[in-house]
Amino acid sequence: MSTSALNILTLNCWGLKYVAKNRVERVHAIAQELAKLDHDIIALQEIWVFSEYEHIRDSVAKRLPYSKFFYSGALGSGLALISRFPIIGTSVHPYSLNGSPIDVGGGDWFVGKAAVSIIISHPVLGQVQIFNTHLYAKGGEDGPEYQRAHRLVNAWEFSKLARQAAELGRYVVAAGDFNSIPSSVPMALIREYADLSDSWAVAHPIAPSTSSPSAMDAITLFGVTADSPLNSYSAGKPLGPYARKFLGKRLDYVLYRQPLRLPTRLDDDPLPVLKCTECNVLLTEKVPGRTFSFSDHFALEATLEIQTGVRAPADLADPHNVWAPPGAARGPVSTSELSADSITTTMQALAACYRFSRQRARKELSLFAGCILMLVALVVGSSWLPHAWINPIFILFTVFVAWLGTTMLYEGFLYGNWECNALMNVIEELEIYKNSLEIQAGTR
User: Residue ranges of the Endonuclease/exonuclease/phosphatase domain (predicted)?
Assistant: First the structure.
């Protein structure tokens, strides 16, 4: 067992039961490939069928004996973590917003997307909290930002969890399908507030100068993991302007950071430091002997080197809040805070989504009232049916109106208020956070 580096792999398995194509064959092929590789941590998304998770778990159990399958929502989170090192703690944080219950095609509301984590006991690093997540999918990259408001809420909640883990003195590694390109606002929230480093950006600090990359260049040089022309499930399907222009998207990440800690005594040994030295896209080929890919996403792996004897700057929040015991050296304190642009853009998007949600809720409640009136009319009119054969049709129509009215009541009142309250909570949190930054900067 090597303790000089942490090797992480993340993969969206596209394991939707009854929906995903070639699911059983693909999952078995994924298990065979993972058994050949040598990673310390494997993070899986969209692995909803428990028996298929068990198959992958058992295939790698000799090297990775510890694992956790996470439950959330009505259909499960689809998230699992497999580890070489002992698991000493786990957690599940379902996101407060995951789309709408009437968006059956999207399905995010039913699966209960979440941020999950395990705490492992590492022989060199001590406690490491490994996060795995799959953010809200719909919204793309084009159009008004409020269309991605639920993903922004996911990103804010995730960044708070990662930052809290670091404040507890743990190393943090976060992997998963973030459904966001690197330049997006959700990724800015996560990088800035949680101070997480992007493994791909660290391992590839100089952007290639290729002006017209091929589909393979987009994978090897730019880290494309989804919507690639080389993926059998992406080829030929309608894609957005961004994916067409850049021959895919980089949506999957391995992020990491050091723990927040007090400055150590001058004669103490510094804590180890994580640094990504290699990051690659894997499983880009077709399943051996088949014409389809392993998943609609490619896998991503990152090697996080454990550097010892390197003194990293202490980075515990704000300088005036840092407490150090007598004799401790107060080194420079680095802070990681959201930029003014990120705060403003996020708050504007959430506020726009709040207004849109209120308008939609009013329309749905109006439709509910219309359904009630229609039901009253149907009850009164049932006494004057001219022919017996109309009765079954009449009953079916009544059932449909009753269902529609009940659905609109739930959507307009219960879910509408839930969504608006969740959006307002985040808006107010960001407003308080913005005010605190202004107070610290002396501008208020």
Answer: 9-297
CA angle 359–363–368, rounded 5-degree value: 145
Mean pLDDT of 236-250: 87
Domain range enclosing 280: 5-321
CATH number at residue 161: 3.60.10.10
Cα–Cα distance measured from residue 344 to residue 144, given in angstroms and rounded to the nearest whole number? 14
Task: Give the total number of structural domains in the chain.
Answer: 2
Q: Cα(297)–Cα(57) distance, rounded to whole angstroms?
A: 20
- pLDDT tens-digit profile of 371-393? 999 999 988 887 777 777 778 88
Q: Token digits for 313?
A: 């700057």
Cβ count within 10 A of residue 357: 21
pLDDT in tens, 63-93: 999 999 999 878 888 999 999 999 999 999 9
Contacts with 89 (C-beta within 8 Å, 6 or more apart), sequence order: 118, 119
Q: How far apart are CA 416 and CA 365, in angstroms?
A: 10
Q: Which two tokens stand for residue 424?
A: 């307002």
